[in-house]
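S.,

Sequence below, as promised.
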Amino acid sequence: MTTTASRTTVDLGAPLTGEHLLRAAAPLEVLAGPAVATRLQEGRDHLRSVLADDDRPVYGAKTGFGALVGFAGRASEADQCDNTLAHLGAGQGPDLPPDVVRAALLVRTWSLAQGLSGVSAHVVDGLSAMFASRFVPAVPRFGSVGASGDLIPLAYAAQALRGRGFAYLDGARLPAAEALASAGLTPLSLDGRDALALVNGTSVTTAALSLALSSVRASHRAVQDLTCLLTDVLGADPGFLDPRLIAAYGHGGARVVADHMRVLLDGTRPSGDRPLQEPYSIRCSPQLLGACEDALRYVDGVVAADLSGVSDNPLFFPGDDLVAHGGNFFGQPAAFAGDLLAMVTTSLGNLAERQLDLLVDPARNTGLPPMLAAGPGQQHGLQGVQLATTAFVAEMRRCAVPASTQSLPTNLHNQDVVPFGTQAALRAYDLAELLRLLCGSLALGLRQAVHVGGRRPTAPRCAELLDALVAAIEPVDPDRPLDEDVRVAGEVVTSWDRQVR
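The prediction came back faster than expected:
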């Protein structure tokens, strides 16, 4: 990937990464070089040779779909395309966020560009052209079970690319044909195989999971940083991070987290006013955050595998004259990873909420005023913010029920087990935003704590983080609405560590 001041370039002949997906919401230059063109042509030629053989079945090109595979498909390739997409127009609910849709189509484009799907080269070219614009198909959230791919949401995306349905252009929701014309794009022409290849992969699941992981990774580092700032502002002893203690624990994630936290707390001087043993929200933070690190590394691996894999059915292998019918559209790894990410996110959110609760409580915050109010009674400080964090955590706990265990048979028992990876990934995406708000709430509390009598951090790196918060946010004095301040603080702390490294 190369990045200029104006645009990122994605080479479809190179590996796809989560960083590419983070940048997909903005215009991209997507390149399909000679090697990609050769792969696509070989795959297309193989498809044509197989379709010409009356004795060789090809799912979705010669047949009906799903449970109706035993019946012949439509004779016309154009009709087969229309039939593929029309019957999947059953989605409901609000539109997916534009960044998820664009990232999903980048995942789909990369998968198709590997040449194993038998698609026309102009499909990849058309998708690549779309990324140079701000065109975003309007895709309803509900309808995918994450098996046979994200059929329904991707069908809406494919229809919009054909000029049917609706799309967004520069944030305005328009008829798709109008949006395409305004963006200078040509509607995609598809045959039956092209249409099925566009929808028969878990690209929405992969995209949402990857975006959620990137956000949670940033918040995970922010909670580490904020825990250090809390330790320093309260004057707590950082002995709970002693490397000999952590090494004896035996878990790699805890060592990684504690190493990072010791760097931030280097130079801190305990006040001597705190108890011998801090509450678990401080004392056990490297163990909790370390377990999150270990779990996040598992999710890292699933996302990397999904981004480097081809999700479709069937796949075409020209060198072996093979049409392989199977289940590479089955999003079980992402379902497990999304559920695990939701648990990690909820645990991190709970930790941040408990740390804010400690900070606003005069019985435990070394004498700071209740709710960090600059004049309790006349002012109320963080009281509203703390109420909101309680609601955030309750919502996160409610949503942390695993999706991957909810399998329901459907499609006349053709899909008799389904992973629900789409639900797991989109739920993780939603929870990641709540976690960012919890990070912002805790960060706002720490900024306010120093204003109402908390000590300035004695560790230089902690002081730098506080100064970044002070530069972005005024003290709560007098009271004011704090919703925007929470969002600003969340942005500061989730980007700060990346900026200073």
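The chain has 18 helices and ten strands.

Coffee later?
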